[in-house]
Amino acid sequence: MTQMQVLPPETIKVIVPPGKYVLGDPCYVVPQEDWQPLLESCDYFNLPVGLCKGFQVLGFSTKYGDGTYADNKRRHYPVDAGLIGLVPWAYAENVNPEYSHIVEFSFNTVCSRNTDGTLTFGAISIETGDDASFEDNEDEE
């Protein structure tokens, strides 16, 4: 299996190998019993790629934490762990289309987090900074 590669900062860039992934907050699809070991494997996503049970999980922090963010295709991503990223389809559990979206890359794809909070996953862009389409989930409780 081809490994993900972290490229040096200005923006954080990761080259993701071809495959099918769940795009969204990883906390919603990583098996519950694996969540803590995954977090520990990547220093709580201070490093953008974690490893658990042989699967690599990408997680970029959102600029303003939890809430709901929209992508350039007008799809929404609820966030409860302050992260949006990619979980390999083969590893994902309980995929709910209200919380995440399925993406498939045919070739190595650059994913990034810019200093302004813009997250990109190939052609998909999610604004999590000042210009973000953001809804605070705290208001719903």
Strand order of the largest sheet: 1-2-10-11-12
Low-confidence stretches: 137-141
Apparent shape: globular
What radius of gyration results from the CA coordinates? Answer: 14 Å
Total helical segments:
1
C-alpha end-to-end distance: 43 Å
Largest sheet: 5 strands, antiparallel
What's the count of strands? 13
Look at the structure and give the mean pLDDT.
Answer: 90
Q: What is the domain total for the residues?
A: 1
Strand content: 35-45%
List SSEs in N-to-C order: EEEHEEEEEEEEEE
Structural classification:
mainly beta
Q: Helical amount among residues, as a percent range?
A: under 10%
Describe it.
With 141 residues, the chain is mostly beta strands. The protein has one domain (5-140). It is built from one helix and 13 strands, in the order E-E-E-H-E-E-E-E-E-E-E-E-E-E. It has one helix spanning 32-41, and strands at 5-7, 12-16, 19-24, 49-52, 55-61, 67-70, 76-79, 83-88, 100-105, 109-113, 118-121, 124-127, 134-135. The strands form three sheets. Strands 1-2-10-11-12 form a five-stranded antiparallel sheet, with no helix packed on it. Strands 4-5-8-3-9 form a five-stranded antiparallel sheet, covered by helices on one side. It has a three-stranded antiparallel sheet with strand order 7-6-13, with no helix packed on it. Mean pLDDT is 90; it is low at 137-141.
